[in-house]
Amino acid sequence: MSIPRATYRIQFREGMDFDGAAALAPYLRRLGVSHLYASPIFTAARGSTHGYDVADHNEIDPGLGGRAGFDRLVAALKAEGLKLLLDIVPNHMAAAVENPWWRSVVEWGEQSPFAAHFDIDWSTKLTLPLLGRPYEEAIAGGDVRLDVDRQRGWLGLALGDMVLPIHPCSYEEVLSRFETPAARKIVEIAGRAAPDADEDFHAEVRRCLEDGDFVAELARASKDPGFIEQVHAEQPWELIHWQEARRRLSYRRFFEITGLAGVRVEVDAVFDDVHRLTLQLVRDGAVDGLRIDHIDGLADPTGYLQRLRREIGPDRYLVVEKILEGEEVLPPEWPVDGTTGYEFIASVADLFADAGGSDALSDAYRDLAQKPVAPDEMVRKARSEMIYRNFEGELDSLARRAAAIAGTGGGGPAEADFKRAIGELVVAFPVYRTYGGTGGLGETDRKILEEAAKKATVDAGGEAAALETVVAILNGDSDMDGEASVFRAKFQQLTGPVMAKAVEDTFFYRYNPMIALNEVGGDPLHPPGGPERFHARMEAAAQRGDHSLLGTATHDTKRGEDARARLYALGEAPQRWSDGVARWRRQHASMIRASEGGPAPEPTVEWLVYQALAGIWPKDATRPDAGMLRSLADRVMPYLEKSLREAKLRTNWTQIDEPYESAVKDYASRLLSPDNGVFLDDFAETLEPFVAAGRVYSLAQTLLKLTAPGVPDIYQGSEGVDLSLVDPDNRRPIDFEALQRSLGGGADTFETLPRNLAHAKQKLIARVLAIRAERGALFEKGSYVPLRTSGPRGENLVAFARQDGGDALVGAVPRLILDAPRNGLAFDPEWWRETVVDLPESLSGKPLRNLLSGQSCEAGKSLEAGELLRNVPVVLLGT
Fold first, then answer.
1. What does pTM read for this prediction?
2. Structural domain of 232
3. Angle at 225 between CA 223 and CA 231, to 5 degrees
4. Partners of 128 in the beta sheet?
């Protein structure tokens, strides 16, 4: 197995293309990574900023440089000894006409050769939620017109500049009132058209569309709403208002995004079509590993991964994007090397977030809210909103299927009972999903389902009976195996999106006592587990041979890794922070606007604003100048807009409350005015100790990421200081030239570094990755051994050993050090007096070398923390 030493994530698009990435290859080699980890590279929907809306799986995006540019990138990487890890998206594609498969489905309906590629319910017309208002209003208002797509060569119904192709069989009826030669010719051409060979058809139509008289006839005909309705009625698709999608969508979507249609990769032919180019790139040696996006969206993740592993071979690195809840681990039958690493972020939070302090912040937040705050109930409410409103159509479909399987004609549960039972089961689900196949659920998944069923809130009688039936269907106890398998797959594909949208994209924006814990893979409902849980998770990962990515920042994280490290420190002085918020709220009380829904911003949103600012405040904690204040405001405004809309309390993406949002943004803007000097000085002064502690935690979490069981993953630019907010802020262009200048020649000693966090962090990464290159077996196969720390500051130090035969290293990082005396990034040794790290017998008495500074030290049965941390904020020793 070819396990990466470390990966470096690059976000293509938004200014980064293949040639730009190729130019970084020498820098990445000097930094010490082994793999460039690329965001999706295949042709995406027009205007895509991320590439997850794939339009053509078998074309490398020309906008990034096309195949020629990709080949130049691969050559540049190979020249520096680097490999490529590719992010692929098997679950969904762009529901747009520039996607040739989707265009074919729209044009030909169920006759299309790609009709089975998408997860579409063909018992009804294909619903296209593209109207900005209800259908009748849209037709009467002229929103829909008859038009042509000159470039692609088809006749269609147009919305703005998008022309949806009509079925060729309807051309004759549609054009029967037209008298131009072009119209007659197009009718003749359409009569010969076939769905599996329509390129010639479109080419012939394209030539006919040069007739200006014909196009003018179309414009005149479009003024007749009755005619437009007639054309619309003859199509295999139906235009609906976009707000109707939650109730009546005929295809599976990605989460709530109707512009992304689910793909049926569980079908062998579809798998082949989706992966043709990807597998070619793997077999040709251009791509060395794959990252699978949204594995939980697939109907059969286990079968998919087993097929993919057979195709790419046993030695290719393969990881999946998967959020694990609590102590959940990946199904053992998945032939993968691990996950993309969200769970590591939660493990780091266990170390650096003080459990008692987080509770105190929650108490202060509750007092501020001036009303009961029950986070468990908030999660339940968010899940209920999702399943009964946002995913109502999916729920109704499942209820119909369950009723049909059960057979409701004999006085059993009604469809409404099944709807309630399924809805409450989803609300109570403790994990993102189960992974049952055609035979039902395995033992672990049965326990998960049993737990959810016990917590589901249903009435006695029909609902209780319906719940019992649904559990039996999911478990595989039903006689209707075929229908039960379809129900099971669709239920399992639904629980994940409901969980994600309810927790990550709703609750995490509603409940903000300590926003550093509101992170993908995190759980703010439970107190941080401290060193015990961190050690337990790392030890278990090593025993499993887990080679998951160790992420501390990704393109999906809610805030940057160094912003999060700084915000952990708030829990060490909760009174200091809450007193500051109270003071700042009093200073700005006159800026609160009264509105029908209450004060704007409300107290809990004020709290969020101050924490968000604390996370992105300048890294030296000084008062920003006018230019920097403008930059902060430019970044905070879209963050607040997203936060308020995701919370869905007083505004949301579909029903925007402009006055409320404006009031909150104005509040934040005025906070950051250069004229608000009293606040700016006070805020900077209050923040200084938190920023100072955050610098240490930044380096500590970096060392842990570089040495823990797994594969270190560096998100673009985060080898410097990453004080970003959620996307789009975390996808801003990176100053790679500055990073290259900062790194210089590559790895060197860490002890002599300046106090600048960005430089220190980058050098630490380069140094430890050089060590990983020298001692690959230790990091790839070595055990993880928790080390006992004792003495007056024992709880302020976390230590561990990695061992593989006679090779070993010892790592140690500080925690909960907000009030520790420090000089820059170095500690006062007296603070650590009599605090020691106990060594295992296998290391006791052996000479150890400081791998960061090169100095040697004698190890007895223990190591003195004061000596270890005399000149550096983190420790790495080796035999």
1. 0.96
2. 100-250
3. 105
4. 239
